[in-house]
Amino acid sequence: MAVDKEAELDELIRSAGGEEVEEDTGGGLDIATLLMVTRRSLPWMVLLIGLGLGAAWLYLRYTPPVYQSSSTLKIDQKTQAGVLGLEGVGKAADTRQTAKNLAGEVELIKSNLIYQRLRDSLNLDVNYYTEGTVLASELYKTSPFRVAYRLKDNRLYNRKINLNFLDSTRFRLSYQEGTQEVTNEYRFGQPINTPQLELTVYRNGRFDAEQTKPNYYFIVNDDAAMSRYFDENLVVEIINPEANTIGISFKDHNPLKAHDIVNKIDTLYLQEKLAKNSLASQQTLAFLESQLGENSSKLQQAEQALQDFVRRNKTYDVRSDVSGITEKMAELQKEREELRRKLGALAEVAGVVDENRVLVREGATLEESVPALARLENDQISQQVAVLNDQQADLNRLLESYRPTTTAVQLRQEALNYTRRSIRNLLRGAQQLLQSEMADLDKVQRELDARLNQLPEKETELARLRRPFELYEKSYLMLMDKKVEFSIAKAGTTPDFQILAPASMPLGPISPVRLMVYAIGLATGIVLGLGLVGTRYMLHNTVTNIRELERSTPAPVLGVVPSYDKEKLAVSKLIVDKNPKSAISEAIRSIRTNLEFMSSSRKTKRMISITSTISGEGKTFVAVNLGGIIALSDQRVIILDLDMRKPKVNLAFEAENTKGVSTILINRHSIDECIQKTSIPTLDFISAGPTPPNPSELILHPEFDQMLAYLQQTYDVVIIDTPPVGLVTDGILIMRKVDIPIYIVRADYSKKSFLKNINKLVRTGGFSKLTTILNDARAGGMYGYGYGYGYGYGYGYGTGYGYYEETKAPTGLLARLRRRFS
Fold first, then answer.
1. How far apart are CA 700 and CA 728, in angstroms?
2. Enclosing domain of residue 346
3. Mind listing the pLDDT tens digit for each residue in 549-581?
4. pLDDT by residue (tens digit) across 150-197?
5. Looking at the domain assignment, is residue 473 inside a domain?
6. DSSP H helical segments within 680-811, as ranges?
7. 339 and 197 in one domain?
8. Which residues of 24-34 are buried (b: 16+ CB within 10 A; e: fewer)?
């Protein structure tokens, strides 16, 4: 019998804990859970949106606005040279007139030259400020005082120098020197001379003797700081290259200052451009004048020398003999070059002959393979080279079949060497002949040189005198032409700098844009809120409401046990007898009613097991109070604690656990000795007893079935509190023996993965009557139970309003908001 019991238990364990069923009844997006998570996250979403809008407001409150002023310039050159028909002359002047290189103009506007003049003309080297609660405001053209300074210590540049009015004639000046603060009182107009600075503070027309409360300070900027300031805020860009338009914009926290800077840049640029054009014209004319004067002096000297030569020699042409000799010498030079070419060809042929290879390439002639033969024009040498080529080819073919030591190969090798020696002799003879001809040409060349040297040196001197004269004459005429062209172009050129759009006065800040900042804050809050909802939904891995329970398991739901908030229970207790009209009592009555419909054949004797996946899901609490509710309906009920590892039923009734199921199964006590009474006359219980070392083996004893049979005969309802089936396997066999197995799922505690145990038990374990109860459910997870009929089979626990006792809901604003969002 024990073997059969163990086999049955093993089969149940395998069937209940086997392979997972692939069907996923809870896959996809759970709209109900998403809405529940969204409702619970609404306060946080509102808070995040509020934080986003608050951050946007703080950013706008403590971020100084930035204003931008802009203007548009058109850079052009109008010239009258085209009208005079001189548009083709003076290409350099035309290049300057067109002014197409707008990139250079952009660099000019952003140069230190414009920056320095801008700083001096607008007095931007000193910035005046008044300190506010959080931000400081620049007093551009509105400062009630001005300073004249000379800083001796460069460390005072770009640093705050505080100034506070004491009255209409005195002020306090303070600044930081190292780690110490230097503070003194002075009068307006009094020269201040310290080792660090020389300073004089003057009042101006905006000074008001009543305005002594604000704290003022000023900053003296050095050149580097001003350059950085202009570079960071000035934008110069080419708008339309074809129209030669340039856009200038400047950003600053003071709109008037931005407007004045752009307006002044336009003025300074136009002034600089006009000055640059005028200077360029003056420099060009001065250069032409200097070159003309110098060239005229040299031309006069050349003319005078040529005139003296004519007077002395009374002749102007001795060129005929010289030209004849020059022509002969040129012909001799050509012949010498031809002889040198042939000598080079001889050397090239000699080098080719010495090579042990076939000279003629396949498909080519001898002259094509050895071009030097064509230059020699010697048929004898060409014939011998052809014979050499044939002998070399014949030898190469023979070497492919015979060794070099064979007689045939050696005979052909000797013939080849003989032919090569003959060619060398021919080449040597031709070379001697060419050298002889070269010597004859050299002799003729020396004779012509002697004749040329015998001629009077008049022509040589005349040619020497003519060369500078002609050179200076051409240069003088060219410079005169350039001067005329430039003068005409300059006379007809008018600089045209148009301000298409003058500096605009900023009507509003470009940054920060209030609507955009608030939109970003709102969007950030919404995104964070949605992210929170998504994160909480993704991390939501517990069963929250009855929808999730129904959706994830095919087992029917007997009912829902709401949360018990009246008191904090350290352990499970019987509470239905103390609060018979509470919501939790009515919920358990609904479960009792549904159990009546679940009982097969309306039998009066029932055995109910209550289990869960892990400890802490409330199976003992449900077992005790369900037993209490059934006992209050005049039925005899006994609760059997079979969780012998962690017994809790005795704690619920505040009883001892010295004897119980474990002692009954080992025959130490009888069943009647272990039955204990409760405050309800018809409700008894048997505790688990002392924890045995082998709880699973005790359940397999025949005494266990005998105990159940005895209790079922004595009592109307037997409720068995089994161990959690997710931790141990004791409860699986017990669930086979009962009429109604109940599985407890605790809201916001039981993992969704626990529901797979229920699915395994129903599908593979054969527990077709397995039912579930959602325990510790909040108001949001109890749909269908608050009014009218209950869930599933019988009447609900809340028929009608005011049927059961409830605590009065708080009426405060926070409580109403909490109820609204829940």
1. 15
2. 320-455
3. 887 788 888 889 988 877 777 788 888 888 888
4. 988 888 899 999 998 888 888 999 988 878 888 999 999 999 998 888
5. no
6. 695-699, 702-714, 730-737, 755-763
7. no
8. eebeeebebbe
